[in-house]
Structures are given as C-alpha cells and as structure tokens.
Structures
1.
Amino acid sequence: MFLSVFDMFKIGVGPSSSHTMGPMVAAARFLDLLRTSPFHFHGLRASLHGSLAFTGVGHATDRATILGLAGFIPATYDAERAEAALVAIAATHTISPPGLGPLTFDPKRDLIFDYDHTLPGHANGMVLRATDAQGDVILQETYYSIGGGFVLTAAEQAEAGGKKAKARADVPYPFETAQEMLDMAAASGLTIAAMKRANELKFRTATELDQGMARIWEVMNACISRGMEGTGILPGGLKVRRRAKGIHDALMAERGLNMTAPHTINDWMILYAMAVNEENAAGGQVVTAPTNGAAGVVPATLRYYLDHVPGASTARIGDFLLTASAIGGLVKHNASISGAECGCQAEVGSAAAMAAAALAAVLGGTVMQVENAAEIALEHHLGMTCDPVKGLVQVPCIERNGLGAIKAVSAASLALRGDGIHLVSLDVCIETMRQTGRDMHEKYKETSLGGLAVNVPNC
C-alpha cells in the first residue's frame, strides 16, 4: 500500500471530489477504453446510481459526467471552456471527445439518474455505455467513485473485495497501520514526514517532490484568497450567501484594537476554511484534502500556522503536507474517506486528523504526540453524518470545515501538552470509524434522505 502525497492532495474542481471529480475521471477512463477498442462507436450513454443519483444534481455530477465524456479532466479544468462545451452539447446532441470524433449524446435522454438500482460495489456507482449506429450497446463499464477523486472499475472493486491492499515492498517504510508507523519511526529515528519523504523519493526526484508540494500549497492558498474576496449568492437554489469576505473585512478592521477577545483567533481559522469551501461550492479550483467536501480544514490549519503562530516557517510546509498525507493514507487504507460510505466522519473527521497531526509535527511534537493529535481529532468526529441540504456541498458543509479546523488545532495543542501516551490508539479510532460507517443508516451517508437535508426547507 502506497498512497502518494499527490494522491491525497489532488488539484481539481468543486463542488465534490467523489461526485464531481470522480465521475469526470471515470469518463476519462472510459474514453481511454474506447480509444483502444476495435469497435466503431456512434453514441454514448450514462447512468448514475446510489448517492450519485440522489445528490447528483446538487453535486454537479451530471455536468461532470458530460464534461468528462467530452474530454475534460479535473487537473486542467477550464470553467469558461466547459460552459461553452455544455451549451454546444445540449444544442447539437453531439459530443466530440479527442481522438474519437463526433458521438451522439442527448443530455436529457442519454444521462439517467437511476434512483431505484444501487450498484453492489459502492454507494457511488455509475455505468458508462457506448452504442453502435442502431443504438445497441456494444461496450460498457461500471465505475465506482470511492472518495477523494479515486475511481475503480467494477472488476477492480471486486478484486479488492473489501480487503486491504498490502503495503508495497519497494518503499523504505511501508507502514499500513499507525502502530507500524510508530515502530518504524522508533527504529529509524525519523519523523513521519521524513519516512514519507523517503517513500516518495522512490518514484520522483527531490526537486519534483518539493515543486509538486509547493504547487499544492500555492493552489490551496490561492483558493483561500479568492474565497476571502468572493461575494454574492452560491449556486444551487438554497440562496446561501458567501460570508468569508464580510468576516475577513471585520477581522481586519478589528486588528490592533484592545477590545478584541482572545477567542477571535477561532474566527480566523473558520474564515480560512469557509473561504475554501465557498470557493468549492461555487465550482472553483480546490485541492482534495482528502476530499472536496472537507477541502478547507487542512489549508485553514496550515494558513493559521503560517500567519498566526510565532516562529512559523514556510520551510515546514512540505513536512506539514507529508505528515497530513501519511495520516490520510492510513484512514483511507483502513477505513474510508468517502461520505457516501462512512458519513462526514470520513471526510471532515479525516481532514481534522490529518491537519492535527501535521500541525503537531511542525510545532515540534514527537511521533507519539503527532499520532495522538490525529487520534484526538478523529475521535471527536466519530458518528458524524453526511446530510447535505438539497445535495449541495453548502449546508452544513461550509461551516463544518471551519469547526473541523478549530478541532484540529485544539487536538494538536492538547496532544502537545502530553507525552504521547494515551488510551485510545489511532488504529482503534480508525477501525471504530469504519465500523460506525458500516452500521450507519444509508440515509445519513450523502444521500440527502435524512438529517438536516430533510428538516431544513430546500427553497
């Protein structure tokens, strides 16, 4: 098992990694399949199942699927070009993927939201089909969007069979559990970030690694900045007003005033996270951390460290991201980062654990304190449901990221006050999260069929 820092932190587009980025990636994979096929294709069709159907419109799954079939990918997404493509496809009922030529595709007829048939492999399932001139399906593939922009075919999901992949033997520190991570750190004398760096260097040069991480933070930080300047109403029909700019303006006006309360620092953390998630809700460029729905927690915590902690250094950004990705990889490997699979504990909970560990690390914590910080943050998100109102990544998601950042900082601080010895291990907490997600009713797992989603007016 090896998940790169660039697997956990992927540059993409909002509002959802599993419902927007995942379907776009799946469509790109399907196009690759068509390009290597001996058949001559005439048209395309798609059906969305489970959570992709129930909250697909709110998450722009329909748009993402169409754009993916047209050749768009998250990493190079251009919003203006995408809008033009959608208009053209709707008008001509034709889609023209690169290397495949014109194919018939009527969005109203050929994209189906199937609310009645959940596919067996995962709550986020979709089937893509290619047809001949008579309209008969001659090639199809089932894909599962398993969270964080990760996509598996039905065969790949079946091969996994719910079993965890074994750690890769070709990396220096192939830890699969937090305990293995602690043992390897004790034996090597290295930090989590140093072990993670050594693993990464098996696949890329130090320059490539450092430049890639710098790019990740550049996009994260730019997202915060755009969010703090954005105004107006978020799309989707809930009429949610963007608040980050107003909060930022008020905090700037209060700076230096003696009347400012100490707890105002919490407002800065919430501001940074909300800025990211308002950008995500608006369909802007974000970084999965580990998902879009939880994209605000890690950058908010890193921005808090850089802007508000005395002695903070930009030289530690790489260590922050490497530590966070190591923790995120453990959660994904041993449980889930998918809201459709385990609820929001798997998204904001995982993000808070990642951020808490990373902050504890750059503040000088021992490996045991770093593991403790991650455990504290995740433990206090256990049982959190995923119940987005109207299927939009807005309520309660935007504010939830802000509170997740506060929990991350608090967890790191609490862990650093101790010696790293604690009763509940991170491994136990991750397994508990997996079991809780397994037992959680489906209506509380990103279907918008329970919780706030049915108790708040949608219009």
2.
Amino acid sequence: MATIDAFFKFMHELGASDLHLSTGNKPLVRLRGKIEKIRYHTLENSELKKMLYEIAPDEKVKIFEETGDVDFGYEIPSIARYRANFFNQKWGVGAVFREIPTVIPTVEQLGLSPVITKLASLPKGLVLVTGPTGSGKSTTLATIIDHANRTRYDHILTIEDPVEFVHKSNRCLVNHREVHSHTKSFATALRGALREDPDIIMVGELRDLETIALALEAANTGHLVMGTLHTTSAAGTIDRIIDIFPANEQAQIRASLADALRAVVAQTLFRRVDQPGRVACQEILLATPAVRNLIREHKIHQIGSTIQTGRKFGMQSMDDALLDHLLAGRIQAADAYTYCVEKVKFRQYLTTTPEDFTDV
C-alpha cells in the first residue's frame, strides 16, 4: 500500500471531494465545498515528492519533471478512482486529487430533472454539460453515459484527460481512450473516432477550436457527441463556441451549431442545509426549432426568455432551479441570491442582503 493511500481512505470516509497536498502546508480536504485542514504535520518538499512519485507512473514523473505539470488517474480498488494533478509552486511540489466514485449515481440519486435521462436516448447531435470547475459536470455526464450503457445497444467511445468514471460494457460496448496515454490529443482521437464506428462519443473537455470543430462535424454526421465546457450558462456556452472561431467563419459555425445542438445543461453545486452533502442546480436548454432559429439569426440574448417559455418541453432556468431548491429547504437564501440572475425575486427570502460592491 502506498503511503498516500491513507489520505485517500481518510477523505473517502469523510465524504470529501478533493485532497490538497502542498509543500509548506498541512494536508487539506474540500468537504461540502469548503477547504478544511487535516491534523497532520506540515509537509516538506522531499517528503511530499517521495509520496507523490510512489503512485505516479514513470512516464508521468518524466513529464512532470520536464514541464512542471501532469495529470493522470490513480485507483484504489474497492474505494475509488482519483484524478491527480501534480504541479510546481513557489515552495516546492503540490498536488490535488479529485475523488471519482466507483459506483456511478443515477439521475434520481442526484436529484436531477428526468429530462437528463432522456438525453441518453438521443440518436445524434451535440449535448453539452457546462459549469465552473468542481460543479459536478463529469458526474452528470457519467450518469447520462451510464444510462445509455444500460439501455442501448451501441458503441460508446470516451476521450478524456485522464479517464475519470470507468464504464464497464453492459448492453453497449464501451472503449475508454486517455489523452497522452492512448492518443496524442483530443483532436487526434476525434479524427480517429470517425473511423471507429462509434454511436456515442464522449469528449472530456472541449478545450480549443480544433476539438470543437471536430465535435461539431461528428455531431452533424450522425453521432451523438457529449462534452463539457467551463461556461456558466446556456447562452454563454453558445457564445463561447461561436466566438472561438474567426469572425469570417462564425456565420457558418452558427448554422452548423444550430443543426447539431440538442441540449445544454449548465450547472453549479451548492452546499445543502438540510443534510450533509451538496446539490446541483441546473439550467437546461433544449434545442427546439425556436432555439435553433435564434442561434442561426445571432439572437443568443433571447435564449433566456425561450427557456422560460419552454418549461413544457423540460427546459429550466437557473433561477427556477434555485427557487425550487430554496423553497424545499435544501440551500441557503444567501447562496441562491448570489448566483441568481433576477436579484429582486430572491431578495424577499433574505434576512440581510449580502454586500457585493460589484452588484451595482
């Protein structure tokens, strides 16, 4: 057993999501969204480096020493997988580990809208799950993939850096490809995917123009493509995809995106007040004909009102999701107020109005 495994077992028992190890500091965990110290001595650089190198593959150690950063997956059987990131900082080495559960939760267990399950049955198109770092994007995407794996008879291909949730072939054939280990890049893997007879392609992160362009091509040629972006709203996601392309290509990309897009799920995690843990609030945009027309005509600013009128289709605004959780007693009024769009609607639930000098 590696020395660091004791930390992983401890954080697993606590229910923490992340472990932070940094030279010159005591170990810390992120518990229900907040960083908390572990009772342990301050870590020295040589001690921490030895601890980290014990679990890292030789090729990852080499990359880290050459570049100062590296990502990879680490697993403790019967406990969990961990997404590892090593980095150099002012005082020495540092590392962050995100726990990836071995059992993939269902939509019901996560308390998500039933429409999320329906996304797994789409025959083709582009489905995006977005949100800030640590908002549960990977978990939501894994839940959709898992439902497809249990209900369809298809080939699922995942492209990640590193592989996070591991899906064992059920009704579907599932192949996992890890960037830098099994393929050179996301773009290289996506090019190859078109010759590998997939029905569903899951891209861990749509990072750059080339990857986004290839994902759109795959979605428009009969594949169901799912991926994540670091955007905080459905409208912001569409703008981000279009804006990454040169101005002279954006009209064509708007038309391509309008044809390919099926759904955008933008989510944020909140600390629960009714029980230990966190809960996801989601904005859900479904690509109805009205939404596709707005994308083609470059009227993205009208998507918010389209979400409001599309509730009968399963659409949901972030404010509506926040209000549902607030009225059910799951989240604090102050948190809902901080992240809502229409502040006036939520001010009545506050005992004191939070001060925000940027909210003017």
3.
Amino acid sequence: MDKNYALITGGSSGIGFEIAKDLAERGYSIILVSRNEQNLQDSCKAIADEFSVSADYISSDLANKEAVKHIYQTSKERGYTVEILVNNAGYGIATPFHETSLEDEEKFIRVLATSVISLTKLFVRDMVDRESGKIMIVSSVAAFAPPSAIQVLYGPIKTFMNRFSDALNSSYNRLGITSTAVCPGFTVTNFHTASNVQKMMDDVPSFMKFSAERIAKEGVEAMLKGKVLCVPTKTYKLLVFLLKATPYWFIRLLENTLAPGRYKTK
C-alpha cells in the first residue's frame, strides 16, 4: 500500500491538474476527483505515463450532498492513505444574484465551501491519527478584494475559506498538520469559459494573467513548507498588500482598472 497519495478535487484540468502534475513529479501518487470520467481517465493516464507514479480517480460531483462520503469511503476501500488533501474544485456564477435560483446558490456553496469543510473533516481525522498531513485550500485574491457586482458569493466564500484554513492551523499545527490557503489572481484556465465570464477575463491586462503551471508550482512549494498563506507571483503579492493598505474609497475608484467587468452592473 502506497502511503504517499495526494487527493486533488477539480484535478482533471486547470490549476488542479497542474498541482497533480507537480506533486507527481515529486514522487507522490495521485487521486483525481471531478465530474467528467473521460477527462479523469485521460488525465490519470497522462500523469502515470509522464511521471511513472500511480494515478487513480474518483468520479464525483461535489454539488451532490453524498459526494464527500463517496470520495472518502472509496479512498479507504482502495487502501489509499491520503497524505495531502488539495481542495481545489470550484466555478463561478455569472448570473446576477437576484436572477439565480436558490438551488444554484446552494450547490455553489456546497462545492466551494461545504465540501471543503466536509472532506477536510473526514481526512484530517486520519492525519491526526498519523500526526502528519498537508492540506491545501485553493482560495483567491478575491478574498481580499472589494465586493463584486458579479459572482456575488465568490469573494465572501473565499474569505471564509482563508479563515477556515487559519483555524485548521491553530487546531492541528502542533500535531504536524498544516493547511495552506493559496490565493491566485487571474489564471489562464477553462474556469472563466465554464463560468461564462470569459469576456471579463479577455479584458484583463496581460500582465495580470498567469499560467496555471506557475500558480500550481508556487502553491505546492508553499504547502510543503507549511506556509499558512500563499499569494502566487510578485504582481499579486503587491496587489494584496495594496488592497490591505489602501483606503477603501480609493480602491473603489480603481476597481474596473484592476479587474475589468468585475464591478459592472447590468
């Protein structure tokens, strides 16, 4: 039984897939979780072929209330000891808040927040027994930004996830378990197309957009070092510093310059 497994949600594409590749290159065996079974099969094969590690998948939709139990039970049944848990799955809702159904908002919260808490609760118990483990929560620079006119819940949920990650460190750091909140800015993936906000992404200045590979590399390195917070790239480190230090009224004046479309209303 291999004791060096990393489980990555939303792992078949984008940042999640690049995180999986980075960990595989470091010798970790991989468990990918997402909804599309064909994508999972292709991604696992690509990782196994390139890095000669074990790569398996669990097809599951985190919007489903039973998904978390299924993921945990399946990993236990297959004999996998998850040393690293990467909570990466996510998406956005471009529809104005008042037009979105309550069911859609609940699913959104389930994927970006409730499933993160639930998966962590299940896997951290095993980490406590072993007195070792690493957790990554892929958050966002949106956690530090002003409220947005689109994707109204996205920023608040990411702020909540950062605080949750902090609380995990306070609770379990003494046992050798660390949690790292990774907060990327605009990243070139299929996230924006899938979330119907690609036009907004196209308007973002090129110097503010970075590759998923770079974000994954910086995030993984921070997690393995046990850092509490990682804001990848110097550009976004500076931006987050300015967001914390600059008066709120001035940031509001610059909103659409920093993130075109994010603060526009209908």
4.
Amino acid sequence: MEYDVQKLFEEPGLIQITTWARGVIQNKDARDVVFALANAASKEGKYVQAWENYVDLPDRVNVPVRAYARISPNPIESKYIYENENPDVVVLTEEGLVKGNNVLKGLKPGGVLIVNTKRDPEYILKFLSDTSNLGILGCVDATGVTGYIKTLSGAEGATDASGIGAGVGAVLAGAAAKAKEMVKLENLLGTVKNQDACRYGYENVKLMKVNEVGEVVSIGKIKQNKYDLEGLPFAGTVPSPKKENEGMVTGNWRTERPILTKELCNDCLICWLDCPDATIFKTEDGLIDFDLKYCKGCGICAAVCPTEAVTMVPELDFVD
C-alpha cells in the first residue's frame, strides 16, 4: 500500500498552536500560552498536547524559541511529531520576532497571528513577508497589562510553582481564544492564574482581517535571514567567521538596536572593545557604525559609552 506522506497526518478538527518567544527571559510566558489553551480544551473533553521545542535548545537569552500545543476532538495521530509544521494559530510574545523569523511558515489558510505589541495591526503587517494564508492579525499590549514572569519555574518538566498564566501568557491566550474558536472563555479563565489579564486579552485584542480563506495576497517581500543549516558540518559545527557566516547570524535575537548620536561621540572606542560579538566598526568617513546582521541588541555599547552617544531604540521602530 502506498501512502501520500503529505496527507499522512491530515486530521479533521486538529488545531495546532505555535508560540514564539525570546529564550530564557520569555520561556515561561510561551509555555503559559500553550499550556493554558491546552488545559482549557482538556476541560471540554478534547485531546491535547503542549510542549516546548527541543530543536531550539539549548536556548540563550533573546534567541528565538518556540512552544507548541495541539487540540483535537479526536485522538491525536501525529502526537510523536515534535514540531507544528502547519499551525492554525501563531502567537508572538514580543513584537520584534516578526523581523528575521519566518513566523508564518506553514500557516494553514485562514490562520491567525497574535502579537504582543502596542502597535496597530496595519503596522505589524509591514514586516510579514508572506501573508497569503494569514486570515486574522491580532495585536494586544500584553506587556503593559502584566509584564513578563521571569523565572525558571516549570522548565524542563519541573513543577510550575508560579502558576500558569500569571503574566503575559494569560493575556495572549485570551487574545488567541478570541481570534480562533478553539476553547470557551470560561474554561480558559478556570485555567489561568490571572483571570483579569486573560479577560483583558480576550476583550481588547485588536483584530484585523487580512485575507479570506484561500485568497492569495502579496504585500511585498521583507528580507529574511537565510540559514543554510543543511550545509553545516556534522554536529552543527561551523567554521570561524571571517566577514560573513550565515550559520551564525544573530541579528534576529534583537529587540532593540543601538543608535549613535555622532555629535556626542568622542571616538574613545570603548564600545568597540566591549562588544561581545565584534559588530562595531568604523565607516570610511571615520564614524562608528553597527553590523545589524550580527548585533544581538545586548545594550553593552550603550551601557559603557561615557558620553551617552549610544542609545537603544525598539527594533520595530525601523522597517528595514
């Protein structure tokens, strides 16, 4: 008997949720989104899964990482597939993740994207490279309501002593439940620790319809980082970079970028000495500049600058 591999795990009613976050500082909130939605669905008698992506680990501060959930009215046949290759819902715990990450890869037609941001959906749309399958884009200021929960509690399968959904995760879970019919609000509220935050996300998320299901719309391509991971040597080792190394691009870790006020710069080069990634250089006209392809936005340059010539500015203030 021959099988069509592409249709092997087609499961009617299955909903796949993928949450993108920043490593270490937002892992907890990413877990909370998928755990809250899965637990709420479980209360309704549905079959569920929720887990973090070990492909992303070992994670580091600010590196993009993911967590997943699956909800189905039937037993989940694809339960041993460790990534959601065709998500119905994508949630971003931080707005800068829309840059340099193909967050809509594999999205099913009519899919939902929820972003933690103060900005409007129309602005976020500018940063998405392929919206052909995107049905609804939702934005909600989850950080302004609760803030992030900075703890390792619940990591690596340990007991979550801080409770599920005390911070940003509660708001985003509520927003996702409003945008996509997958769980009832009362069951979600019965799962999260911060019910007011969850209800806020449900009631205040700004939703914008992007496409009708099946309609293909192009809004222009935003340049994405390309990783030739298939071409890397055994065990993921990479050669030491000289000028460029596509296997070590880290610019998509950045939530803020350094900006130089040249009138304040005294050319001391302390920032150049302290930069951990050698991303600071001088231009032909002798000015300090930053290699944003590899700059992680750590902010050390701004912290050590004696004249305060370097300041950190939110990444999504720039459309490039």
